[in-house]
């Protein structure tokens, strides 16, 4: 599929193989050494980059990489994800999350639905999110230093509210992420570590390079975790100029799993002796983790979630 998509793009746009090599070199320093011979070999399937690099090539050319991901179904088995689910959603911290939002898990399996996280000015969900962060992760109350509804309408914020299809007025979980210029966020992390100022959020456009910063979320069950990430991964795969994904992490069970699929720790905050999250031999209150979306989207864990949804 990589070779087919590459050749199709070149022909539709009237490029020679040399033209395409020049375009890639101009788009990314990673492809400075790619020449027309390499393009020819890729198109004929004689050689091929690994899946993550192939996606990085394609995202220089096309916005929607879902057709490429669809071709990777046979890579989609993952026991790592299954093991993480067992550990994460059997953890005591889940009970505190449920209690904070007054949520009870249903005894029978139900279908989920989702909408954009904030539907109106002064949406009641904002009060719920504020109450949650008053109990858990008070530093995240910085969300309310900005007009979240306005940020969403300006396309600076991307988020979901989740509910059971049988009761759409009962919000059972949420996620809030911000679009930030990739280079600006890298500089912000160098200067301020975990304390990312969400006021630097950028209006998402189809041109430019963006990072998505997951700042807030509550996921209350294994099935909901899967459902949320199916939506998240589908969105990222349809917006390939979002090239980095950041997440603020406070849960110790999450860190090893994210490291195993390619995330890296880029900042830590507040060393602690007990509790917190363990990074190497030390413990911290929280950390900030990052992954290139080409690695995330082509991971077995991501593919195992979206295999039936593209």
TrEMBL record:
One of its GO terms (molecular function) is DNA binding. CDD domains: HTH_XRE (cd00093). It comes from Vibrio owensii. This is HTH cro/C1-type domain-containing protein. It comes from the Bacteria. InterPro entries: Cro/C1-type_HTH (IPR001387), Lambda_DNA-bd_dom_sf (IPR010982). Residues 6-68 form the HTH cro/C1-type domain. SUPFAM superfamilies: lambda repressor-like DNA-binding domains.
């Amino acid at each position: 599929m990589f070779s087919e998509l590459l050749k199709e793009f070149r022909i539709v746009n009237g490029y020679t193989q040399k033209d395409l090599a020049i375009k890639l070199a101009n788009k990314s320093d990673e492809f400075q050494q790619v020449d027309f011979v390499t393009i020819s070999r890729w198109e004929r399937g004689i050689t091929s980059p690994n899946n993550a690099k192939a996606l990085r090539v394609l995202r220089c050319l096309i916005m929607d990489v879902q057709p490429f991901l669809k071709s990777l179904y046979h890579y989609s088995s993952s026991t790592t994800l299954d093991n993480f689910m067992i550990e994460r959603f059997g953890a005591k911290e889940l009970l505190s999350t449920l209690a904070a939002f007054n949520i009870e898990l249903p005894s029978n399996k139900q279908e989920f639905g989702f909408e954009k996280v904030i539907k109106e000015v002064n949406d009641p969900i904002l009060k719920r999110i504020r109450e949650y962060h008053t109990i858990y992760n008070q530093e995240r109350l910085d969300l309310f230093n900005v007009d979240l509804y306005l940020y969403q309408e300006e396309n600076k914020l991307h988020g979901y509210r989740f509910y059971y299809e049988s009761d759409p007025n009962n919000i059972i979980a949420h996620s809030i992420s911000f679009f930030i210029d990739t280079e600006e966020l890298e500089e912000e992390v160098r200067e301020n570590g975990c304390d990312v100022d969400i006021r630097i959020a950028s209006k998402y456009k189809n041109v430019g390079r963006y990072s998505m910063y997951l700042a807030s979320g509550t996921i209350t069950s294994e099935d909901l975790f899967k459902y949320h990430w199916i939506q998240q991964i589908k969105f990222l795969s349809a917006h390939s100029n979002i090239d980095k994904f950041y997440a603020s992490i406070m849960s110790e069970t999450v860190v090893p799993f994210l490291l195993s699929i390619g995330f890296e720790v880029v900042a830590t905050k507040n060393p602690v002796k007990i509790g917190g999250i363990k990074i190497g031999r030390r413990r911290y209150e929280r950390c900030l983790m990052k992954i290139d979306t080409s690695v995330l989207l082509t991971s077995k864990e991501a593919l195992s979630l979206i295999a039936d949804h593209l």
